[in-house]
Amino acid sequence: MRSSKKTLLSAVVLSATLGWSTATVAETWTDATGKFKLEAKFLGAQDGTVALQKEDGSKIFVPFDKLDQRSQTQARELYGKMKAAAAASPAADQPAATRRAAVSPAMNNTSAPLGKSKFGANPTAEETVEILTRAMEESDLVTLWDSLPKKYQNDINQNTQMLAKNVDPMLWNGVGDIVKKLGRVLSEKKQFILGNENVGAFLPQDPKSLEIWDAAADAIQAVGNSSLTSHGKMQRFSVEGFLQSDGRNLASSFRALSKLMEDPSGDSTAGVPKMRVVSSDAQSAVVEVTRPDGDVETRGLVKVDNRWVPDDMAKEWDEQMQKAREGLQKIGSPEGKQQMMNARMMLGMVGGPLDSLLAASSQSEFDQAFNPVFNMVSGMVGQMMPGGPGGMGPGGFGPGGIGAGGFDGGGFDAGDAVPAEFGADAFGQ
Question: Rounded to whole angstroms, how far apart are CA atoms 106 and 97?
Fold first, then answer.
């Protein structure tokens, strides 16, 4: 088993670096209902899931039993050819680290350096307070992350990965798909939203408000296009890698939005608390914190792994992390799985109308798709009860068949990257 896994993984590396002849040609894949087709390249398989690369370069995972008989046969044949190509490839003898680097994006490299630390070899409490204040004023996320002890960083990374591993891939990616579509609707259909009689009259349309609208749409799209919405990538998530990749785009988008919404005085530091060290020694300190609203409180700091943190955080950290892990484990319980299944059904109810809004090419088409949803939501809020006026608009529940979004809707997008290892017995061979 270990040998066959090594062989298949090497084939994936070879196809990514040298070009595997059979994988360079897109194949036609059809779902089990026969209603939906996709042109995509075969990349491999894992645990009964087929990895495909769409024409736009994005990668999706499709459960094997959701493919029709012809596509299943095609997958087996391509899988066999990949194994044969891997067996003849020198890539199989490459060191493990080299193989992993070929299939894992840099943003998931937990050892990736973030640059020289601003805290130095042995920071004092006074130095830490000064550096943190400046980092908050400049929205310097790298420095704020670097202010945490290594143990705390590892706990956060591990718990985030654990969350992703316990959540249903289709639910995680389905939420991501909704975020992407929402961002597109706000950006591409702004004129139709503002022109709708139900909402346009209530939305401010002065130049500043429209700037805020555009910035908010950009921020939502930045979230949707980031690794946060990819179940596969989040299973290998690290804050270090994220801050070097998608985190930069996210931070830039939210800074732009924040700048438009900041204090009218133009003071970008208005929301940053003022901190002053009252007393300190080698391992502890007392800091006076003045909040933006004028409230003053005194906080204790202690040194943990060469970083200064609030004393109550240090005292409770291990206990809180353990509670978090216990909560994350419950996600995979029968009750948790049922809740995730219910949530997936709700995603279909949201995704369909968003598809209809995106497809609208005129104000009348947009209103036809939007007004039933608006009326339904208004009725739910007004009556304080579930349900509402019938229907979900022309979009309905989405295509179905393969999932709420079909092949092109991201229904099976379990991650945009080929997994670190492909199972050798994916198709029961």
Answer: 13
pLDDT tops 90 at residue 316: yes
Residue 208, classified by CB atoms within 10 Å of its CB into exposed (0-12), middle (13-18) or buried (19+), is exposed
Which pLDDT value is given to residue 271?
Answer: 75
How many CA atoms does the CB half-sphere of 87 hold within 13 Å?
9
Strand pairing partners for 353? none
Unique residue bearing structure tokens 């609030």: 310
Give residue limits of the domains in the chain. Answer: 2-103
Q: Which overall architecture, per CATH, does domain 2-103 show?
A: Roll (2.30)
Query: By CB neighbour count within 10 A (0-12 exposed, 13-18 middle, 19+ buried), where does 263 fall?
Result: exposed
How many CB atoms sit inside 10 A of residue 402's CB? 25
pTM value?
A: 0.60
Note the pLDDT of residue 382.
Answer: 56
Residue 265 burial class via C-beta count within 10 angstroms: exposed 0-12, middle 13-18, buried 19 and up: exposed
Q: Which two tokens stand for residue 192?
A: 């139709």
Percent residues over pLDDT 90 in the chain: 44
Report the mean per-residue pLDDT for the chain.
76
CA distances from 332 to 165, 216, 231, 323, 341 (A): 9, 34, 15, 15, 12
